[in-house]
Design brief:
By secondary structure, this protein is an alpha+beta fold. It is built from 13 helices and 14 strands.
Length: 428
Amino acid sequence: MKGWEEEEEGVAGSSSYRFRHRRLMDSSPPADSGHSSHNGMPIMVSILAVVIVCTLLYCVYCWRWRKRNAVRRAQIESLRPLSNSDLPLMDLSSIYDATNHFSKENKLGEGGFGPVYRGVLGGGAEIAVKRLSARSRQGAAEFRNEVELIAKLQHRNLVRLLGCCVEKDEKMLIYEYLPNRSLDAFLFDSKRRAQLDWKMRQCIILGIARGLLYLHEDSCLKVIHRDLKASNVLLDNKMNPKISDFGMAKIFREEGNEVNTGHVVGTYGYMAPEYAMEGVFSVKSDVFSLGVLVLEILSGQRNGAMYLQNHQQTLIQDAWKLWSEDKAAEFMDPSLGGDYSKEEAWRCFHVGLLCVQESPELRPTMSNVVLMLISDQMQLPEPAQPPLFAARVKKAVVSASEFSLAMKTETTKTQSVNDVSISMIEPR
């Protein structure tokens, strides 16, 4: 019996010893715990830093987004008084219906202002709707100025604004729809260019000149367009030209000759040298643009980077060279096939060269331009050499940025590369 008890106590002691030993083993730290803690701390700090940075960036984004939306809402609200203007306000639902909710099939193009859509109103009238894009750099002030300016201008050679829409977050301009789109769609297309016979080109030149004369001298406001180019001349169903896109225009409310601005807007190839290099613009800046456009209509060529690449000089330099060498016929568009009045063509050529002279004082006024175009008896002065915008380029490839550098513009610039654009209109 005693032996059994001693054996039981031995077993109990052994069991107690194993239990204590197991507790000691469990409570003792692993051999490499210090090393693991040392490696884990930088990881935790890195994760925490990333979380803090991401949170801060998200907060900044939300703040800027709310601020931007608040500004846009304030701008939209500031446009409400437009209902008191002479221009009709159109409701958003009717425009949605007219454009089939801005379907892709009705999209005509896109520019700096935003996309342009064709629409058909309930009565069957066709319209063109310019819709301000959320990504557009244009603001409510420019939109208001465009509306107020065009509402006051009425001429057969200016595009007609039918109304506007300011509802919810939308800002839209509603124009008359011109089925033949813009002049550049014909002039610079190798297939469609042949549709422009000489009489049609002559009428387009004269129509543009008359529209510009109205802006400079005959309208209630003295307006400088500042972005006259082939894509900003629209054609109606009878191919009559209409000047469009007055977003870059300047209004002269006082008698003045020129303005110096540090912010140059326009399109390279059409900009007058004093404006491109010094920021000085006047009515003579538009006259220069008209001269470039006349030369483009005669030749069927665009005065741009591609022409400079292919000919190692600008279109106006080429025109001057051929005129000086009495080779004007070589400058004319081959698609005309020689089927034009040389006397009328040479007169247009002569007027175009007078308009692109380097000195603004030597360029004619728009009233003189129109008179020279319609008069067979008027003696025209000899043109001076046009400005040397670009030296001869020896490179095989000239990019658009290289072309802009070759134009030697040194002031702050905004290059217009879109077919429809609305920018800043400011009274003097």
